[in-house]
UniProtKB/TrEMBL annotation:
Species lineage: Bacteria, Bacillati, Actinomycetota, Actinomycetes, Frankiales
Protein name from the UniProt record: Cytidylate kinase
Gene3D superfamilies from the UniProt entry: P-loop containing nucleotide triphosphate hydrolases
Provenance organism: Frankia nepalensis
UniProt-listed GO biological process terms: pyrimidine nucleotide metabolic process
A GO cellular component annotation in the UniProt record: cytoplasm
CDD domains in the cross-refs: CMPK (cd02020)
Residue runs in coiled coils: none
Domain of life per record: Bacteria
This enzyme's EC code(s): 2.7.4.25
Similarity field: Belongs to the cytidylate kinase family. Type 1 subfamily.
């Protein structure tokens, strides 16, 4: 039969990536990080010194760019015009600019179409796929049989993000928290496909949960879906 499609949405630092990759590994599914695709376009925008405040210019650049995500949960990769940018897309500069780029309608239209193609392929070949992002259950794959919305308190999300970035000081956590907050507001209030809880999603607050506990809950929903 067709492969399982699992949608995992949520804000930054909610544990989406860790959980999505673990679920994909456990079930032998592919893994698609849609945030990495928006980050890759952003990396190109910054590199080419295109004005972030000029949606037309950002859209034109995005239309010419070829974004290639690798879908192995053990080694996800991302390339822009055949050049790998796995590390570059995780910089603070990209993180703080990505919301402006992901709010551009033409950028979303292009990436969403590509994401749907990757999902359809995985589903057809019976491989199945876990897809993480902000609008997967609501827009990209509204028919996904499993939809999870992951949350956590802002403090816990900032701590996790700060740790990922290798930061140590209290000031760093405070700054990361402020940046996360700003990105949450931008992502949740943009006009096109804002971050929102899909109506038929399972909401999981991971604040007091271990990764294994969250993964187990998601796996149980996958088993129930077929
Ligand atoms: O998940 P991650 O933090 O890598 O996402 C980076 C940014 O990409 C988000 O802050 C958001 O602006 C954008 N994004 C999006 N839609 C998605 C995935 C990410 O708008 N499906």
């Amino acid at each position: 039969g067709p492969g399982l499609v699992v949608a995992v949405d949520g804000p930054g630092g909610s544990g989406k990536s860790t959980v999505a990759k673990a679920v994909a590994r456990r079930l032998g599914l592919r893994y698609l990080d849609t945030g990495a695709m928006y980050r890759a376009v952003t990396q190109l925008v910054l590199e080419q010194r295109v004005d972030l405040e000029d949606p037309q210019a950002v859209a034109e650049l995005a239309e010419r760019a070829v974004i290639t995500p690798g879908t192995d949960p053990d080694a996800p990769t991302i390339a822009v015009n055949q050049v790998r940018v796995d590390a570059e897309i995780r910089t603070r500069a990209v993180t703080n600019a990505v919301s402006a780029v992901s709010a551009v309608v033409a950028v979303r239209a292009r990436l969403v179409a590509q994401q749907r193609q990757i999902i359809a392929e995985a589903a057809q070949t019976g491989r199945g796929i876990v897809v993480e992002g902000r609008d997967i259950g609501s827009v990209v794959a509204p028919d996904a049989p499993v939809k999870v919305f992951l949350t956590a308190s802002t403090e816990v999300r900032a701590l996790r993000r700060s740790r990922e970035l290798g930061e140590k000081g209290v000031d760093d956590v405070a700054r990361t928290l402020a940046e996360l907050d700003r990105r949450d507001v931008l992502d949740s209030t943009r006009k096109v496909d804002p971050l929102a809880v899909p109506k038929d999603a399972v909401t999981l607050d991971s604040t007091g949960m271990s990764v294994d506990e969250v993964v187990d809950v998601v796996l149980r929903h996958c088993a129930a879906a077929g």
